[in-house]
Amino acid sequence: MTEVQWLIGFHVLGAFLFVSGAAAVGALHALATRREKPSEVAYLLGLTRPAVAVVGAGGLMTLGLGAWLVDYEGWDWGDGWISAALLLWIASIALGGIGGRSARHTRYLAERLAAEGDRPSEELRRQLADPVAQALNYASFLAVVAVLALMIWKPGA
Amino acid sequence: MSWLVFLHVLVAMLLVGGLIASAVTARFELWNVARWSAVAAVAATIVTIGLGEGLTADEDVAAGWVDASRGLAVFGVLLGGCVLAVVAGLARTRPRARRVTAPLAVLLVLIGLATAFVMAAKPT
């Protein structure tokens, strides 16, 4: 195998970890929103942590090897599809980070409520269904799908 | 052609996501969730393989990496995913099934990633 084949292989592997991890986080979060008991909500939101670690590792791998590929292939950072992909990647991380912070606060609330009797709570339900946090998470995922589209079509390359 | 590639890769990423969810939930003994995540991953695998076969026919590709990735997808991810769904279902009542569910899910995640690597790097 050539060097560029190794680079592309691991770059795509990183992208898989990034997107697959995000899909797993989304699935576990969606499950948590359907639970009533705070202890179950806290447990399911806690399970997202290993998947978030996968997202982080994949994100860094994708960016590092992507930068290496740009250099190796002699592409220009100013090319529209590369700069747009980089901006969308940053947007995805930022939006996911803000949405993730909201989920973390929801988990803290669920843990507190679980320790105080584990009764269903309107406040917890409201936080789980927070439209702003949901919009941020969806937007983060859509940004990553847009990066994938740019990588496949490479408009202007 | 590009739409086929896009959907093929996107669904493959979601299927690995389903396997990661299955591995995490099996590790923490949420057997029902692990089972349904595995079922969703099997469904996504069938779609991914179908799109991949469409791509192969469209581009008339015949290469070792196509056969290798096809073998990994069918005999690794698809059959393994079916076994995982069954084992996760049994894990609710059988201790032996409990021990193998999470390691099997992790193994399938690794096979899914290996398949993606082979398809992306296209080793000759």
Give a brief outline of the structure.
The complex is a heterodimer of chains A (157) and B (124). Chain A has 157 residues and is mostly helical.
Oligomerization category of the chains in this entry: heterodimer
Quickly give the structural class of chain B: mainly alpha
- How many individual β-strands of chain B? 0
Helix content of chain A: over 70%
- Describe the biggest sheet of chain A? none
- Kindly state the mean pLDDT of chain A as a whole number? 93
The termini of chain A sit apart by 25 Å
Please name the two chains that share the biggest interface, counting residues whose Cβ lies under 8 Å from a Cβ on the partner chain: A-B, 32 and 31 residues
Strand content of chain B: under 5%
Q: How many helix segments of chain B? A: 4
What general form of chain A does the structure show? Answer: elongated
What's the number of extended β-strand segments of chain A?
0
Strand content of the residues of chain A, in percent?
under 5%
Rg of chain B computed from alpha carbons, rounded to a whole number of angstroms: 15 Å
Shape of chain B: elongated
Mean pLDDT of chain B: 93
Low-confidence stretches of chain A: none
- What is the string of helix and strand elements of chain A? HHHHH
Instruction: Give the structural class of chain A.
Output: mainly alpha
Number of helices of chain A: 5
Question: What value does the Rg of chain A take, in angstroms?
Answer: 18 Å
